[in-house]
C-alpha cells in the first residue's frame, strides 16, 4: 500500500514539475518577446530621429563654397552647365543637384528605413508602418521637387506676363519643398509632415520603451504623486 502511495506521489511530482517547467518556459518566451519589442521600438525611434536630423540639412538653403564647387564639377561632367551658362540657370541647377546629392549622401539611413519597415509592421501594426512610410514619401517629394526645379531652369523665358507669373508661382512652390521655412504664410508642410511622423511613432513606441522605467504606465501614478 505504501509503495502504491509512493508511486502516486512520484507521478504527481513529475506532473507538477512538468507543469512548472512549462510555465517557466512560457514566462521566458514572454520575457524574450517583450525584450525584442522594446529593442525594436528603440531602433525605430532612433532611426526616426536620425532621419529628421538628416532631412533638416538636406533642405537647408545654405551652401558652403566647397559644396558649390563639388556640385558644379558634377554638373559640368553631366554636360548641364558650361562657362557660358547664364548665372541664373547655373544657380538653379546647383540648388537642384545639391539637394539630390544631399539625399543620396544619407543612403545608409534610407536603406535602414527600408529594412526595418516590414519588421515594424509585423510587430507593431499598420499605423507604425504608415508613419515610417511617411519618411520615404518625403524623400521622394524632395527629389521630385529638385528635378522639377532643374527642368524649370532650362525653360526658355516666358513670352507673356501671365506665363511668367505662372512660372514664378511654380518656382515658389518647389522652393517650399526643397528649402525649409515654408512660404509667405510661414507654413512648412514638409517639416510638419516629418514632425507628425515622429510624434506618431513616439505615441506608439515610447510607452513600450518606458515600460520597465519610472516613466512606464505601471509606475505613472506613483511618479505623478511624487
Describe this protein's structure.
By secondary structure, the chain is mostly helical. The chain has one domain. Helix 1 packs antiparallel against helix 3, helix 1 runs antiparallel to helix 4 and helix 2 packs across helix 3. The radius of gyration is 29 Å and the shape is elongated. The N and C termini lie far apart (63 Å). The C terminus is likely disordered.
Strand content: under 5%
Main sheet specs: none
Number of helices: 8
- The assigned structural class equals mainly alpha
Q: Quote the average pLDDT.
A: 81
| Shape descriptor | elongated
This entry's quaternary arrangement is: single chain
Report helical residue fraction: over 70%
**Which consecutive residue ranges, at least 5 long each, have pLDDT under 50?**
217-226
Number of strands: 0
Gyration radius, in Å: 29 Å
Distance between the termini: 63 Å
Order of helices and strands: HHHHHHHH
Work out the count of structural domains. 1
